[in-house]
Fold this sequence. Notes:
By secondary structure, the protein is α/β, with parallel strands linked by helices. 40% of the residues lie in helices and 17% in strands. It has 13 helices and ten strands. A ten-stranded mixed β-sheet has the order 1-2-3-4-6-5-7-8-9-10, sandwiched between helices. Strand 1 and strand 2 form a beta hairpin. Helix 1 runs antiparallel to helix 2 and helix 11 packs parallel to helix 12. It is globular. About 4% of the residues have low confidence.
Amino acid sequence: xxxxxxxxxxxxxxxxxxxxxxxxxxxxxxxxxxxxxxxxxxxxxxxxxxxxxxxxxxxxxxxxxxxxxxxxxxxxxxxxxxxxxxxxxxxxxxxxxxxxxxxxxxxxxxxxxxxxxxxxxxxxxxxxxxxxxxxxxxxxxxxxxxxxxxxxxxxxxxxxxxxxxxxxxxxxxxxxxxxxxxxxxxxxxxxxxxxxxxxxxxxxxxxxxxxxxxxxxxxxxxxxxxxxxxxxxxxxxxxxxxxxxxxxxxxxxxxxxxxxxxxxxxxxxxxxxxxxxxxxxxxxxxxxxxxxxxxxxxxxxxxxxxxxxxxxxxxxxxxxxxxxxxxxxxxxxxxxxxxxxxxxxxxxxxxxxxxxxxxxxxxxxxxxxxxxxx
Length: 374
């Protein structure tokens, strides 16, 4: 039984504790009647206990639905990194190290030759000076391919939202599983998937921005990551073979990478994405007070005021349940040739993993279908 922060056992225990505290409160309340110090303190303590236990159960339920934190370590340390697999030994180049292989099973098999391999990696950026942890899914066709044929595989960078961990892309959105099923059904070519969060300077939410005097998150994803992964795994460096996709902030990053660095990513898909960088306690000032920089990172402003690159874009939203649905329609209307846009517009949904899980299969197949490595 797993007692992780997203686990059902943890949530059930929290609900039981809250119910027990409520029952004890009902039982003790008549005994604490009166105006003396002890009765008043007793009633206050019981009310505090109800608030804490009920609130904890509610927060665990919300986290289970949205996947904000993948483990107690993430919550307590406020870092969005997955630990290396137990017993793993790092191998690789200075730019990319493989920390181990993540065990997984699909359709009754755990044989990498049948279902592919998921490697836990650390990427260190020479240009940005940043590092990020994540997973690389290698399909079984890659595992069997000769070194010369590996450059023919499309590459997809899949990004989660904020806060999150790379593990939710496997456990909640099931990207490797979706890819394997689509290939087996003949709906998609085999592709290499890079599974990461956009948080490469934790705990700051950099929103894939090159912050003046701060973390160069855009340079990490547009330059460092591509160079490290393509070199280590023998993959194409051609932007026509690279695509990015993501949910929430990860979707904003994906669209921005294609629009701002089309020589790095030729296509992008975004699920429930905002279309401009926010400013809050997690981001701080991402643009150093420069209004021009902020505009350049506003995707609607870019589409309306700057030449559009020859990239393929997909946006997904819901008519009911998504606050950014009107902006999604504006985005679609603003795309002009040579850029191209497609969309997934659900009748109802929400900013959550249940909705993204409905959109992810079609979005992934669409994205890989737009990639043509050379």
